Fold this sequence. Notes:
This is Reverse transcriptase. Helix content is 26%, strand content 0%. The protein is extended, with a radius of gyration of 18 Å. The relative contact order is 0.07. By secondary structure, it is mostly helical.
Amino acid sequence: MSTQNDTDVTESHPTMQPSDDDKPSELGTARLYTSQDAKPKVLPCRKIPFALTQRVKDELETLVKRGILVPIKGPTH
């Protein structure tokens, strides 16, 4: 398996350009393939360490401003 540095990747994929804040400007699309007999699993929420709470809140706010996440009110199930 060969590896590419950042320059090679952005040259071969012109839509994948680094942004000013070193985060991808376009997320693109993803596909998830699963087995037909796969069963969903419900897991408890994970606790965020107190020392990271503010950084996580700041990052979530950034993702909302960029339109990547949409805040919701209430349960999703």
